[in-house]
Amino acid sequence: MKSMRRRLIMSAAVLASAVGLAGTSLAQSKEPLRFGLAMPLTGSQALFGADQAKAAQWAVQDINAKGGVEGRPLEMILLDTQADPRLGINAVNRLINVEKVPVYGTAWSSVVKAVAPVSNRSKVLELSVGANSPEIAKLGDYVYTTYPLADVDIRAQAKYARETLKKERAAVLYIHNDSGVEGAEIYRDTFKELGGKVVAYEAYDAQSTDFTGALLKVRSANADIVHIQGLVSDLPQVIAQMRQLGLKQQVSTYSAGYNPKVLEQLGAAAEGMIVSALAPSAEQNEQVAKFVERWKATEGRIPNGLPYTQYLYDLPYLVADLYRHLLKTGQPLTGENMRKALVEIRKFDLPTTGLLEVGADHRVQKPVYLYEVKNGAFTPIATVK
């Protein structure tokens, strides 16, 4: 454990040195305004966490290139969580007690939940960016989400399946972790409330590679739609095995499925899949189009989990607004005042995700964009507000 923690801190130091100091003359002129970001940069979720961190790095660079915040540079301290709650606690303790940041962002529901007591005890603002467990809204005074929770897009998924597609019998398959369990419950309960019948409700272990047992139960239940509440790392395997077992039902999943890697891995098996996204597309927002082109120009691809990277790109802009508010009102740059600023400002106009309104219930509401995979591409089919 000590060696793992040492590697975490060493890698963080290297990464932190490269973040947020674009525009050296600005950085040298005034003391930086610092915030933290704790994301999975290594491990099973690094494919997505690294892209999200890169998006946040770009935003810091862009803000500083335009003069920073009231003439002061924004600096991001980036630490690795591996999407592991224990490492998340280590990272957040370092951000708060060593780096002395008054605000930080993090993601992955299990990590967000694990570090919440640290934030509440230390009175440092925690911003959840991309995690979707509904319990996040209830984690305490210093924990807020900037991303809609599962009861927004998953409820929209169930409603679309029942009311628009007229599905009568749903099967729900879910990964046995915070995100999977809570998301599956929302889909099940919403579908039933609307008069549908949930004929199978099966969990699988987060470490599973063989889903045959659960899928055979789904097959025998004779559902007319299968909703899968998993992670992007296991979703393609589940669907591939589902098709191999002869299950031809239409599949739905939440925003984890809105990812080009899923289409690449599944090929024809992805046809008809319905996914949700909680941020506008390049066709709907000019800034998103520029964001995507930037990825193509610098990385030769679009980002993994595009909507998530949009929220991470927008996070430094939100933090900049909080700092700007405190600087203009002459308040100390503390976690307590960061929280007050968030509540007082409440509405944020952000570059790639648009208007963000933070509610008194610690939640945010956003339109849900639904897509269906047609001819190997995500095709818009509905917007649910």
From TrEMBL:
The record's annotation in InterPro entries points to:
BCAA_transport (IPR051010), Leu-bd (IPR028081), Leu_Ile_Val-bd (IPR000709), Peripla_BP_I (IPR028082)
Please report the stretch or stretches of sequence annotated as the Leucine-binding protein domain: 32-376
Q: Does the keyword Endoplasmic reticulum apply?
A: no
Q: Span of the secretion signal?
A: 1-27
Keywords from the UniProt entry: Amino-acid transport, Signal, Transport
Checking SUPFAM superfamilies in the record gives: Periplasmic binding protein-like I
A single GO BP = amino acid transport
Entry similarity comment: Belongs to the leucine-binding protein family.
Q: Give the protein name, as stated in the record.
A: ABC transporter substrate-binding protein
